[in-house]
Amino acid sequence: MDQDDHLKLISATALGDRQAFARLYQQTSGKLLAVCLKMLGNRALAEEAIQDAYVKIWHNAADYQHHKGSVLTWMISIARYRALDILRYQKVRKEDAFTGEPAPPEDNDDRFADLDAGHKLSQCIDELPQEHQQAIHLAYFNGLSHQEVVHYLDKPLGTIKSWIRRGLQQLQRCLTP
């Protein structure tokens, strides 16, 4: 399945075509499940994450922007963020082994600093060339190995490594005050 086919299916999904959405699910759910399973280490939680992700994909299909990356990359990002939400929720729900009390909430100052850093990172990533963005998103945000990125983007390993290295160097320059 290539990007053009995914693009047609997401466009039809944006118009409410349930059959197109079902085909998109059949063609992509294995990949999304693998990403979530790798992150969460628990099949039930991974299935919950992709279920929530596909609900969001259905409701937000019209928001997909092809110039920001492939349909699959966009979908994996949605699933990954949902898996991260689950991880955060699991962390908050854990109780201290000694006191039995819920773990103390994070300091709000740290949360705001994290938000600012995340916003700056997003801005810096948007400045990267498209191929560098894709390679970095797949490797670092979606958890794919370099070899998996090679397979997904259909480019030589050396090219993928070069794109990632150059992209990371540009990110470092952008993020360094």
Which helices and strands appear, and what pairs or packs with what?
Elements: H1 3-14, H2 18-40, H3 43-60, H4 71-93, H5 108-126, H6 130-141, H7 146-153, H8 157-175
Structure description:
The chain is an all-alpha fold and 177 residues long. The chain folds into two domains: 1-105, RNA polymerase sigma factor, region 2, helix turn helix motif (Rna Polymerase Sigma Factor, Chain: A); 108-172, Orthogonal Bundle (Arc Repressor Mutant, subunit A), CATH 1.10.10.10. It is globular, with a radius of gyration of 18 Å. It has helices at 3-14, 18-40, 43-60, 71-93, 108-126, 130-141, 146-153, 157-175. Helix 2 (18-40) packs across helix 4 (71-93). It is built from eight helices and no strands. Helices cover 76% and strands 0% of the residues.
Give a quick set of tags describing it:
globular, mainly alpha, Rna Polymerase Sigma Factor, Chain: A, 177 residues, Arc Repressor Mutant, subunit A
Question: What is the number of helices?
Answer: 8
Shape: globular
Class by SSE composition: mainly alpha
Rounded radius of gyration (Å):
18 Å
CATH architecture of the largest domain: Orthogonal Bundle
Q: Indicate the CATH topology of the largest domain.
A: Rna Polymerase Sigma Factor, Chain: A
Instruction: Output the helix-strand order.
Output: HHHHHHHH
List the uncertain runs: 107-114
Give the tally of β-strands: 0
Q: What's the rounded overall pLDDT mean?
A: 83
- The end-to-end span amounts to 42 Å
Helix content percent band: over 70%
User: How many domains make up the 3D coordinates?
Assistant: 2
**Major beta sheet, specifics?**
none
Work out the oligomeric state of the chains in this entry.
single chain
